[in-house]
Amino acid sequence: MLKQRVSQNQKQKLSSTLRSWLPILQSDLESLPEAIEPFVKANPFIQVRAGNEKPDKKFAKKSFFSELSKNSVSETIEALTLDKKSLYQTLYEQINPPLFPTKISQNIAYEIIENINHEGYFDKNSIKEISKKLSISHEQIEKIRQRFSYLEPVGIGAIDFKEAFLFQLDDTDVEEDLCRFVKKLIVEFEFIENYTKENNFNSALKVIKKFRNPPAIDFLEDEVQVIPDIFVYDTKDTIEVALNDAYYPEIIIETDGLDEEHSFVSQKIKDAKDLVDALDMRKATLYKIGLMIVEYQYDFFFGKAIKPMKLKDLADDLQRNPSTISRAISGKYLSCSRGIIPLKQFFATAVEENISNSAIKDYMQELIKYEDHKKPFSDIKILNFIELKFGVKMVRRTITKYRKEFNIAGSSERKKLYALLCN
Q1: CA–CA separation, 130 vs 395, rounded Å?
Q2: Least packed by Cβ within 10 Å: which of 24, 73, 87, 302?
Q3: What are phi and psi of 349, to 5 degrees?
């Protein structure tokens, strides 16, 4: 009986801490003060000293895209005005003759605008819906969408960044040979490093760096800076894991001159200690997750692909419920020499034992990189190659899904893009 009471008391204590812990665990570092605010407001004996350090930028790897965005943003800031129009107002005002001379062409254009996202890209999956709504063919919609290459901001209405770059290239005065090379770099953008030794590479790069990415960047709000929870430092001999402690708020419990035996006071002090425990549990859980990610994904930190890693395996190792680990990694980031990476990205789905979908995707990109431009591989052909190499069984729609993740066009579309290189 005594044992049962002790067990119940332990569960009650844990339950009390968990009530504080779970919302704190789920919050990212930026919203952590907001998560603890209700506990602080309800407790007169707590003071909070905010964490205010800047995130460690030592490992914030500069990507080509970040450089493009930085250039575009700096230009945009200079041009901002208080009465700036929205993206959609700007587009609607341009749907006029002679570019859109008929009522039907204007209606199609309006529908296209409705399906452009905040970055300026058109959702090509909406073509079917527009076609049904206006009783017109897909070809008519595509014909009108191509006219968006003449609208401002240039690149608007493209289906992906490559097409947006091609739209912007058509609007740029570039010498013919250089233009062809720039088109080639755009089409094979994932493999741009392979062309660094070409004579025109630096000139082509200067042209591309002038392009806006995304096309509607002038209309985007300032991006919120990602604050990583975990740092992974790799040296020649070892890897170290550290938490971004500087961002954690410090909980100060003030008990001077208080009668701690008073029921109200003692309960509030207990609540305050539960809050401190909850923050410590958050730190401990994320630190252990960081250690386990390094253990499972050791080779990744030295340039290799992500290996299969299941959420349940990590939960079992940490003796936690998978749903708890899912909360712990949601919206959290890890900073390492390869960049700032969402924790969720480390949990690659295993296609088969010891084969991750990351390895499959890498191989798929290699196939497309070296394919015959006159006869690009279909998704079925890519599927056959993958099944032969890895000895796995997959379905075509999985290959299509992977291809779309990397903004790689289908075989017929790639063939058209390749043809641009010869024009």
Answers
A1: 29
A2: 302
A3: -75, 135
**The residue type at 59:** F
| Amino acid symbol at 410 | G
Q: At what angle do helices 322-329 and 2-26 cross, to 10 degrees?
A: 30
Question: What's the CA gap between 251 and 36, in Å, rounded?
Answer: 10
> Nearest-CA neighbor of 371 among 381, 361, 362?
381
Q: Residue 279 to residues 29, 232, 273: CA-CA distances in angstroms?
A: 11, 21, 10
Tokens read off for 128: 């079917």
In order along the chain (423 residues), what is the average pLDDT of each group of 10 residues? Answer: 44 51 80 84 84 47 38 36 63 92 93 90 91 93 95 94 94 92 91 86 90 85 68 82 88 78 84 88 91 88 76 82 82 85 74 66 88 90 87 84 84 78 53
Q: What does the longest C-alpha to C-alpha distance in the chain come to?
A: 89
Tokens matching residue 82: 């208080």
Q: What are phi and psi of 260, to 5 degrees?
A: -70, -5
Secondary structure of 306-317 as H, E, C letters = CCECCHHHHHHH
What is the Cα–Cα distance from 277 to 14, expressed in whole angstroms?
A: 10
Residue 399: closest CA among 413, 386, 414: 386
| CA-CA-CA-CA dihedral for 293, 298, 301, 307, to nearest 10 | -80
What does DSSP assign to residue 100? S
Name the β-bridge partners of 320.
none
Return the SS3 of 10. Answer: helix
Say how far apart CA 313 and CA 38 lie, in whole Å. 34
Query: What does 186-227 look like in DSSP terms, one character per residue?
Result: HHTGGGGGGGTTSTTHHHHHHHHHTS-SSTTGGGSPPPPPP-
Extract long-range pairs of 29-34: CB within 8 Å, 24+ residues apart.
Answer: 29/227, 29/228, 29/229, 29/244, 29/247, 29/248, 30/224, 30/227, 30/247, 32/247, 32/248, 32/249, 33/249
Of the candidates 187, 181, 188, the residue with the CA atom closest to the CA atom of residue 205 = 181
Residues 351 and 390 sit within 8 Å (Cβ to Cβ): yes
Q: Which residue ranges form the domains of the chain, and what is each CATH number?
A: 47-63+226-348 (no CATH), 350-420 (1.10.10.60)
Name 242's bridge partners.
231
- pTM, rounded to two decimals: 0.47
Assign residue 391 a region: left if phi > 0, alpha if psi is -120 to 50, beta otherwise? left
113 exposure class (CB count in 10 Å sphere: 0-12, 13-18, 19+): buried
